[in-house]
Specification:
CATH architecture of the largest domain: 3 Solenoid
Pfam families: Hexapep (PF00132), PglD_N (PF17836)
Organism: Oxynema aestuarii AP17
Number of strands: 25
Shape: globular
Oligomer: single chain
Number of domains: 2
Bound molecules: acetyl coenzyme *A
Distance between the termini: 34 Å
Helix content: 10-25%
InterPro entries: AcTrfase_PglD-like, Hexapep, PglD_N, Trans_hexapeptide_repeat, Trimer_LpxA-like_sf
Structural class: alpha/beta
Keywords: Transferase
Strand order of the largest sheet: 7-10-13-16-19-22-24-25
Largest sheet: 8 strands, mixed
CATH class of the largest domain: Mainly Beta
Order of helices and strands: EHEEEHEHEEEEEEEEEEEEEEEEEEEE
Number of helices: 3
Mean pLDDT: 98
Protein name: Acetyltransferase
């Protein structure tokens, strides 16, 4: 099955590396604005999305390699509407415990840990060295940046972004599309669409969009 990566930035290169370490191959990078003068990355060609998409078989598999949650969601929905399906990429060094579910489109970077009975939605990014403990629920399109620590029974609703090195206390819920800045220590639940940061994390702005 041919695998295509949508996006060709640094995040996409990390996902290519994971897939190669899983002994899988990538057919192409696809991008709306490929970088001028660069035709391939580590031997994998880059194509303009509008030109390549009509030629790609529906039997291919895709990963949307865009860090921004809203843009990743928009592109994933576009591919889904065209009938494409998605695959996961899980680095061989990641530790995935019993009863963990990881939905298609999600990527798990090196040294991440996902503990027992946690459920991870579609098109989620569990970045390098992040740990997610037992019985958590991570909604679609979340991004958990490098080095974050989630205690047990944490719930992240759709599209939450946790900045690098953030920590979340047990049983806290962070509602849809909220952004927690780098190093946040989230001790209480947070409402949707806000920006919060600090220790303890405080709401800095409501109606915030990543
Ligand atoms: C593999 C990868 O690279 S994955 C990428 C992961 N990326 C991240 O984790 C980045 C997370 N981003 C952040 O934390 C950003 O600072 C954001 C989104 C919270 C805010 O960004 P901006 O709106 O551009 O804020 P800006 O840089 O203008 O800072 C505004 C003020 O807030 C402060 N501030 C910004 N972020 C934080 C934070 N996380 N904690 C405490 N204070 C902060 C700044 O020091 C500044 O204070 P000042 O006005 O007294 O100088």
């Amino acid at each position: 099955m041919n695998i295509y990566l949508y996006g060709c930035g640094g995040h996409a290169k990390v996902i290519l590396d994971i897939l190669l370490k899983q002994q899988r191959s990538v057919t192409a990078f696809v991008d709306d604005n490929p970088p001028a003068g660069i035709e391939q990355i580590h031997g994998v060609p880059i194509y303009l999305a509008s030109q390549l998409l009509p030629t790609v078989s529906l039997h291919s598999q895709w990963i949307v390699c865009i860090g921004n949650n809203r843009i990743r969601q928009k592109i994933a929905q576009k591919l889904n509407d065209r009938g494409f399906s998605f695959t996961t990429a899980v680095h061989p060094s990641a530790k995935i415990a019993l009863g963990v579910d990881i939905a298609p489109g999600t990527v798990v970077m090196a040294n991440a840990v996902i503990n027992t009975d946690t459920k991870i939605g579609h098109h989620v990014i569990i970045n390098t060295g992040a740990t997610i403990d037992h019985d958590c629920i991570i909604g679609d399109y979340c991004h958990i940046a490098p080095g974050c620590s989630l205690c047990g029974q944490v719930q992240l609703d759709k599209g939450v972004f946790l900045g690098v090195g953030s920590s979340v206390c047990p049983s806290v819920e962070i509602e849809e599309h909220t952004t927690c800045g780098a190093g946040s220590v989230v001790v209480k639940s947070l409402p949707s669409n806000c920006l919060a940061y600090g220790c303890p994390a405080k709401i800095i702005q409501n109606n915030y969009s990543q």
